[in-house]
Amino acid sequence: MVDSLNTRPDTVIDQQSRQPNEAELVHMLYDAVIDNSLWPEMISELMEHIELSHPNDLSKSPDRFHGLITHFERAMRLSENIVALQEENATLGGVLDSLSVGLMVFDHGGNKIFSNRAARDYGVDYNSIGELEHEVEHLHVSSETQLPILGHADSRGTSIALVDASKIKSGILPPNAAKIVVGLPALTTQSFEDFRLRYFLSKAEGRLVKALHASNNLRKAATECRITYESARTYLKRVYLKTGVSEQSSLLLLVDRNPLSLLDREPQNTDPSLPVRRNLLLRDGRNLEYFEIGPPDGHILLHFDALTGVAIDAIGAPERYIPHLEALGLRIIVPCRPGTFGSHFKTMAGLSDFTNDLNQLLDHLDAKTVTVFSQAFGSCSALAFAATTSHRVDKLVLCAPSYPRHEPMDWRSMDVFYIISGVIGRRAPALLKAIVPYLMRSVMQNTKKYLERHITRSKCPADIAVLSSPVLQKRIPEMLALRTLQGSDGLVQENYLNTHGWDFELGSLTMPVHILQGELDNVSDPEGSRKLQAALPNAMYHSFPSLGQYLLFTEWPWILEACKCDGSTAAVIERARESMSDSKQITAA
Fold it and tell me: Which residue among 206, 247, 356, 483 is least enclosed by CB atoms within 10 Å?
């Protein structure tokens, strides 16, 4: 019999926790408009309020909740408008921050009201007009037809121009804008390299152009390049021919007007490391993207990541894992589920519908057997693959697995992703298509706020340290943006299948299964992991009293070691447990 999860999960309702009344729910709705991170909890509270009403209320009195639902729809529209404005502002800010030109705006009181990143990076970010004018010793005003130039504000040669707002085209700047400051940095080495490549100059010709731009004197440029003056003249003639100009001033103007120099770009990466992101054309014509790190001949660890995909950050920090993987003889393969990252979407009736794609991937990699390991919600797909392709899986290592047959006593203490998938996805799956795209946008725009809410609920110091990391706060929105690059259909389907798509039997997983569970986890409830272990024929439950949901973030070295195919998994895990216990005793002493 298929291990169907479409029934109500084993739930113990906490009778002592008071449910909010309808008036309080309305107040909570509009609180969620102001603080988007409240929405997952708010939606779940609303559903529970309706569920816990008298069973026949909806059939006898269908309009009873009309007012509450109207408030919900209005609040959601307001919140969506706010997120849309945040996205518009983020786009505008991103465009302005991508420029190498520094921009500042001052009000009529002389106070700064805006600056972009270049202004801050190039040291021209002053808090008032007075500070700016004091910094620049000589104020040069050339004429009424030209911009007032304040000279160079730093040793790097950043030129500063101060412009009265009234000189700017009307209707563009806000009414409180009085002065605009533009900072144009000196050209970088990359700017000259761009120019060289654009006009097919040789490296020697490129060096001469750069030296000539700095000195505006061909003899000095020749000396700088350590060539004779006659050689410099020869090079310059060839440069004129390639660029289509006939005099030195026109050449230098052409260099200055290179549009690429206006963009603040990353330095060119000279690291010849192998690309992590790869693609496979499947037999039905769809694309399957996967990430690969580790030696080409290493034993494959088929990793099913969580929704954020940063526990093993294969894209963002592959260099962190490669030395360890090489030492262990392991290779991590992360398949991207349909509709996420670069994998084309396909409609799936159950989690096992992904198995055919995965088998094509393993055939492509010439892998006869693999070790499967997962993080959090990724365990659902991991179990489905292992159950339907048991002959290719030697063992499973599940970190903080999700088991939807279990719903915690107090889901309110869980994080946003559990509430979306485990609560909303189970109780009102039809809502997922409507709210998941919005909620993901909200998380991307308000990541810090979402993490702060999760931190206040966490009882695990190790989890709090992970969630407080500025790197994580940066990587979560980046990865969610990549995951939803093709839209949200893949993410909606994934959330739905994690609770409604268990179309396989847990009893068919006869290979060893190791469940690594932090007892302070407030996302994957330890009691749920124990129930999962009891439902599997050959599973071991490994408890870590001082860890929580994010144990893979901090414990990945020994977890990867435990994934080796040499039969040492249990011993490696037990050694890690003992090490943590000894460390705790030393700290206490």
Answer: 247
